[in-house]
Amino acid sequence: MFLALNGATTMRADLETDLRVAHFAGFDAIEIWAAKLRAYAKRQTLRELRAALERYGLRAYSINSIEHITFRSPERWSELLAECEQLCAMAREIGCEYLVLVPSPRPEGVSEEAIREESVRVLSELSDVAARYGVNLAFEFLGFPECSVRTLTAGWEIVRRVARPNVGLVLDTFHFYVGGSSLDALAELDPERLFIVHLNDAEDRPKSELRDEHRLLPGLGILPLREIWSRLRALGYDRGVSVELFRPEYWEWDPAELAVRAKAAAERVLERA
Question: pLDDT category, 37, cuts 50, 70, 90?
């Protein structure tokens, strides 16, 4: 297992700052926020980025993310293919193994089976694009009520149906809780198809009220983090755990202080588990 810093945690910092503070805090890897990567590429080359990653001793874990990948119009489908092609090419150039994909909100009147079929179709086609670059696609279910794929069970069923070695899951502890996923469902996973774990906590509010801005540093909230991690360890999960927070309050902090506190909080939770 290794620890990563997600670029959403330090959203207002640029990519160069993310690299610097991740190294300063002692993280092993970084999840690169896609908008920060594009901004970097306007000023410097990806070869320079790869050199910076090596200089800081950081692994480029994922590019995060392409959103609303399902139920697109034909025009927006072409945009999706182009975006996937672009980010996969960038991932290959910097030695990044994973690209995170997020499903769209649920269209009105669409059945669960239609959601599964659409998700499988889209992931299968994008898998072909990613395979040309040696990139893996990490599909992230979102627990919010308006989302189309809300639970670990639903996400795993989609990935299982896709049945491609370069398509797997992201498990975000916040979305796991908000969407009502079951701890027992963790036992059904193939750990080889769980590509990324996002670690975070949440305020003590009703699930229906929780939004991204209510995330907290691991260990400061109500999520059953130690139980989730204990079960993942028992399952044999040994990839990355990435601290992903979208809390605007934290974006006001010094990025280095935030990175240090995020790593310490993650270590406390994982070690006690």
Answer: very high
